[in-house]
Predict the 3D structure of the following.
Amino acid sequence: MTSAAAPRRRIGRRPADPDGVSTQDNILAVAEQVFADHGYVAASLREIAQRADVTQALIIYYFGSKQGLFETLFKRRGLEVSRERQALLDALLARPEPPTARALVTAYLTPQFKLRHEGPQAMAFVRMQARLHHEPDELALRLRREVYDSSTRNYIAALQRAVPGLDAADAHWRMMFAVGTYLYMLSGFDRLAEVSEGRFTTDDTEEVVRRLTDFLVAGFTAPSSQASA
């Protein structure tokens, strides 16, 4: 009597690694580092597969394509940031007194800068996010729109209410300046230490957020140049 053939293992049922990390989580962790190092365009599924010790076919099975993998990564952490921002804004708006510009700016920055304390994977996302400005416009714009636009618009509206005389044009322009500034400060390139010859650094996250908040609040509350034009 012939023995029964061993059951074929389905590709989607691949077991977890010995340390308990699932195959999908392992792929995501490796891909986050590769995308952070090279950006979306230059990153290859071959390198991700080799470093994750899986086949390219398995990556396609789980995520559909390189773009699907990139979008999964970006939305996974980006949506967490956006949800936390909205929760902080909701808490501020629920208080009896309306929030100040400083409170709003601090709430907006906090979820992003918390990532500095959440390990190398979170910081890989920060670098990946900073690189998004250099990715194909269609992909980059859509991801920003889907992940961040809703909460960002709500903060713009709240800042208009908090700052007397801040019109819609100034509020939107200044928020874009704020986004560019905080993304640079998150990028990990400590130009402050270089320019100051080591006298000052960005090592202390609380100091970074405090000084950045000072700068951005001054920007949001400055008189409009259009008013005197």
